[in-house]
Amino acid sequence: MFWIAVVGVSLVVASTVVVIRFRAYAGLERAAKSWDARRDAHVADVFRVESRPIVLLAGAHRFSHDDAENTASAIAGGDLLLKSQTTPDKTTAIEARWFGALPYTVGEAPADYDASRQLAVLDGLIAKLLDPVAGPIAMLPPALPLVVRLHVTAPALTESVEERFQLAWRQRGLRDVSAANDPEAPGLMSLDAWLDAPSGDAHDHATLLVVIELHSLMAERPPKGSAEAGVALLMAPEDVAQRSRLAPMAQIHRPRQGTVATLRDTLAFALRWGETDAGAIQHLWHSGFDRVGQQALLSATRAGGITLMAEQRISGEHDLDRTVGDSGIAADWLALACACDFAQTFGGPQLVARQSGRESILGVVRATNRPSFPASL
Description:
With 377 residues, the protein is α+β, with helices and mostly antiparallel strands. The chain contains ten helices and twelve strands. The chain has two domains: 54-243, Peroxisomal Thiolase, Chain A, domain 1, CATH 3.40.47; 250-367, 3-Layer(aba) Sandwich (Peroxisomal Thiolase, Chain A, domain 1), CATH 3.40.47.10. Strands 1, 4, 5, 6, 7, 8, 9, 10, 11 and 12 form a ten-stranded mixed beta sheet that branches. Helix 3 (110-138) runs parallel beside helix 4 (161-171).
């Protein structure tokens, strides 16, 4: 009995210790799994919030007076390339793009010529940009505030940009708005700030963004590789558009900012915020990248699982610097506008990439009334 008692007690004690340790371990494991579940739910919720897009309600872009040439499909089809043209005095050929030039009179002061041309171009360009968005603006609920952000650079212009804009605005019978010109336009990351703004005046409104880049031709020559261009985008956060029962044309997902060295990580976040599989993207619209940066961008897209379209009639890589030219303050928004235009026409999510200084910005756009797969040209 003594040895039975000794052995029995030892077994009971050992079993108790093992059970206690096992229960403690099981408790820790349950706590760890519960923490993992809460973490995963939190991360998913964060990305759900981060994935809420800005929606495009209407838009227009101009880089050519020729309507057939002034399309994203003309760029995608390879029909458009930046070429040299002769200045109005017929003395210099420059590889640059500008809107129509008035006849130049020998002896005319170069500054006066540039001022007259920029005024004529500005009036025509504002009209071309406002006409496609005027109807959607008129349909905005009166209770929904409309913010107009006007960004025009026209170095020779002597007239007031605000007065020329307001004249065209009133001619279309649109609601009263204030519009102060700021020649320093925001970039794509301003959309990130808008999405993060708390509910209230900073968030709950529609925005009409108008960005125009014009150059002098006579008093100064336009920079080689440059382009005159204009963009108008009527946008609102998706939740604001839904509450106001507005029908969007495209979704502009939150852009992600990085550097050339971090393009792969930047792309991964942009795709996740855009709720897009890499395999669904066949078109890339980019500007601002030098040769090294462009190679890094294409390498990152391949590594990320993106296969750009490569057909005889169309390529999936659209280098706006090579086709349109560097459009200065309008460059960010022209790339975005072209991607939205092409997505509405041919379907499929589009990748937008912009290099500005050391910053690389990537974002996804998709049409709301098109299938997720691209159509063929």
